[in-house]
Amino acid sequence: METSAKLYSLKHSNVKTYLFALLFVAGNIALPQLCHLIPYGGPTLLPIYFFTLIAAYKYGFLVGLLTAILSPVINHLLFAMPSEAVLPILLIKSSLLAGASALAARTIKSVSLLAILGVVLTYQVIGTAFEWAIVGSFYEAVQDFRIGIPGMLLQWFGGYALLKAIAKL
Question: Could you read off the pLDDT of 90-120 as tens digits, one per residue?
Answer without folding.
Answer: 999 999 999 999 999 999 999 999 999 999 9
